[in-house]
Amino acid sequence: MIKLSNFPFKTLKTRPKVSDNISTSILLQAWFIRQTMAWVYSYTTLWQRVIENIKKITREELNNYGCYETYMPWLSPREIWDKTWRWDIEDYFKVDAHGDKQYRLNPTHEEIVVPLMQDFIGSYKDSETCVYQIKDKYRNEKRAKSWLLRWRDFIMKDAYSFHLTNEGFEEYYEWMKKIYMSIFERLWLWKDTYITVADGWVFTDKYSHEFQTVLPIWEDTIYIDDTTWESFNQEVAPSKIWIENISDIEMFEKQDIEHDSSIVWVEALEKLLGVPVIKTTKTLFFVADDNRFVVASLRGDYEVNTIKLRQIVWCNSLLMASEEMVKKYIWTNIWFAWIINLPDSVELYIDDSVEWMTNFETWTNRDNHHSINVNFWRDLTIPDRFYDFKDAKIWDKNPSTWIIYRVEKASEVWNIFPLETKYTKPFWMKFTDENNTEQDVIMWCYGIGISRLMWVIAEYYMTENGIAWPESVAPADYYIIVIWEENLEKANEMAIKLEQEWKSVILDDRMSKKIGFGQKAGDSELFWIPNRVVISPKTVEQWGYELTIRGKESQLIKF
Amino acid sequence: MIKLSNFPFKTLKTRPKVSDNISTSILLQAWFIRQTMAWVYSYTTLWQRVIENIKKITREELNNYGCYETYMPWLSPREIWDKTWRWDIEDYFKVDAHGDKQYRLNPTHEEIVVPLMQDFIGSYKDSETCVYQIKDKYRNEKRAKSWLLRWRDFIMKDAYSFHLTNEGFEEYYEWMKKIYMSIFERLWLWKDTYITVADGWVFTDKYSHEFQTVLPIWEDTIYIDDTTWESFNQEVAPSKIWIENISDIEMFEKQDIEHDSSIVWVEALEKLLGVPVIKTTKTLFFVADDNRFVVASLRGDYEVNTIKLRQIVWCNSLLMASEEMVKKYIWTNIWFAWIINLPDSVELYIDDSVEWMTNFETWTNRDNHHSINVNFWRDLTIPDRFYDFKDAKIWDKNPSTWIIYRVEKASEVWNIFPLETKYTKPFWMKFTDENNTEQDVIMWCYGIGISRLMWVIAEYYMTENGIAWPESVAPADYYIIVIWEENLEKANEMAIKLEQEWKSVILDDRMSKKIGFGQKAGDSELFWIPNRVVISPKTVEQWGYELTIRGKESQLIKF
Known about the structure:
The structure is a homodimer.
Chain A: E1 2-3, H1 22-29, E2 33-37, E3 40-43, H2 45-64, E4 68-69, E5 75-77, H3 78-83, E6 94-97, E7 101-105, H4 110-117, E8 129-138, E9 153-163, H5 166-186, E10 193-198, E11 208-214, E12 220-225, E13 230-233, E14 255-258, H6 266-273, E15 281-288, E16 293-299, H7 306-313, E17 318-320, H8 323-330, E18 347-350, E19 360-363, E20 369-374, E21 397-398, E22 403-404, E23 406-420, E24 430-432, E25 438-440, E26 442-449, H9 450-460, E27 478-482, H10 488-500, E28 505-508, H11 517-527, E29 531-535, H12 537-541, E30 544-549, E31 554-558
Parallel strand pairs in A: 1-28, 4-8, 10-13, 16-18, 27-28, 27-29
Antiparallel strand pairs in A: 2-3, 5-7, 6-7, 8-9, 9-26, 10-11, 11-23, 12-13, 12-23, 14-20, 15-16, 15-17, 19-20, 21-22, 23-26, 24-25, 29-30, 30-31
Helix pairs in contact in A: 2-5, 2-9
């Protein structure tokens, strides 16, 4: 039981102003948190309880489904990071130790968990398994993007599963989704949390998955199809443009226009040539990591999404081609280059935003020359296939359902990565299959941002007065206000009784004259504990107390 | 419930050999731990449960008594460490961050907790308080002294209390001792754990206190008085020598002996002059940090304890004087210097080991000259006072009770430091007293080594077969062995029922032919869960199971 008469942390009368969001101001006012340095906070007792409650729920659900908790170390030697070529990643901290040694301050534990688990999976008879830990982690962040999203230290649940076949994993993954559903249900976040497809970051045809909780102020943008519950991170969202009915549009005569060299960007085209932006096209040039030269063309108001394009071109990375490279490969000035007259040695990809365009503008591969009223069929060969490599925009449709996306800001609270054999190969983690052949073990990894979740819940359940904590994570179940000293004993009795029923209690037994009912009621709202009890001579006279369940009418309950 | 059929970690058939102790070998055999690098271990699920149990007990007792848990950050900026001159301490890690910044990887949190708490203690009306955290910590250890004592990362509970007066603290301290007593009682360590006086490390007349658990293989040596339950770390143990009845000893004639210069140390005296070591004296010379010159003399078989001597001389530090300084201050060669003919400018301290010596040997302040059969009264003035600044030895007595100490090897599991105003002063943490005068807040700090405790418990409760975990921290309450597949359902039912009663269960449901009753029974002993249950067709026939409570006879219990 927390007795406020003796509790060191006090609330503030006024709300400190924090530039970019209100929930932080409330947390500062309620003294849940205090800043130590930029992006580094201390948490006081009530906030610490919220963290422990989130950890407890996460742990219970994972254990229930047969995941096994472990404790992996903070420091590790360089050798194991050299195996995976990750020693010199800038965002991972190193620490200098005695004897000119350096250790890694582990930001993630693939390099630790693989050697830990490889003694246990050696044969097709061994069972697939999943281990996890809940741990504070570090990143050497260049800049904190927002007040609460990118911290240098944060709490993570990281789980690693090991599989013998892809089918084994697929089955497991459905099971893992159920675990996560249970966790988010218990955290009261399920309703607005979406399983979102995101970039996999590895050379694979699989995307990674994220759980994104919709919140207006956050960093990610997700594209939701409400008919299928599908959701995509903007970085990978497939998209179809919204097109008008084009059957009756007349083909105008094609014109070549010469102009001065100041007209390069689509905005200038619109302004000076009077061509609306949706009638313009643009073409960009890339070099793949295997040296293929890639030409990508799309409607003028879209941007190339290199993550989507990379999957189409099927390469590890795409770099913008330099002016010199464009000259060398397609014999023209980069500013006026377009898709006609391309040599066979380059690969051309046209986005489907161009597919139904009519009477549109193009460059012509001649300096300071444009064409307008260009049309497929008549002026250009239609390519065998149009692709989708544009950045999705608002009003775009989901290509598989033709439903217009709902676009929302959201925060990533969970992710899953298809690590496959990326870490098991370098550590030689193999098993012998039924034909006595050695195979690489397949590995996946699943994260939950515990500290991120705390902030998401705070922001999601924020009201004007305080944060209306979900019962499952609230810093206490009951807030008991005592008005007169003579009722203290009664209140104390009640608190003890509640604790015996496994309820946690904050007892507001502050008896100083300066702290009246008003402040007590205000603090109870700022902390916003689900159940508020008031014990006063009036209620005691009626042999009871006043109970206010959050959001409901007060009622008198008999002791 | 842990089902071993699906549990990733297996036990080893043979016990790995670890150079310096057996409990580590058992933990490695049971796959509780695995080494990642020197002095860095991963913990698997069962060991992780032991940690969580210890944390839970610690938390419950502290919360119960009104200490408040917080979460303080890992990283902190240089500025706050500059205030206390601790930025450049070698054993504390720094990490390099972007923008040529360096952060401290916090090894302890005084510099964090003072700014956190100073907003809440400003007046004599504010209540004294104690906050704590349970956190992993780091030290840049030069070398690990023993396999488990000095690690680079470890788990600590660190509490900090803030007081307005010393009396306030004294009262609080008695209360804190009770909390710790409850914790150690619940961990089943109370019987052999002693509150031990140790060096305070700060310039104060107060020593610090440690809780030391007696264990034969550990690093500290403690001196226990079994009549008073007093205990002292060797570094500060007061001591009286064991002396024979000297009333009837005849004074021999004093002799001066000249000899060659090879005789310097007491061993040579004993060998070449035939003087037994307990009849020799030795004298050492120190310079205090305030430049006083200190002469300290004691019986030849004792060593000077500079921590004790520092308290007597009342200075911050004592350095051994160089040969040149001895020459300068007392006009003689360091090798032959003794306590006679000292100039007034030096301070002389004689240890009480010399007090009752008769017919003893001394140097004479002349090169290559000794005296033997020296006696107080006759040959020397008796000083006003003898002191106690010798390192205590076995057979020494407690000066306050004259009881011979019991000397034991022990491990420090808790300590308390009188930080007083060391950290509150530089951060200007003050309160206004009743006379409206500003006073420094008084601060103490209390640590419990959570990871240290795990190892102490393992070592303390180690047997030949496994570690007989105390019920309060055991990785499970029940280990259920199923012998035949047909009884699996019954066993599962029983496990679920036990879990509903808040008992934790390991279900040994491994049905492979290779894993017979022998291995199951062996593993149950290696994990050594307090209660073992065997369910077999034979017991089921009698409508029951076999229960073996550790250390007791097996019995058949009806379902």
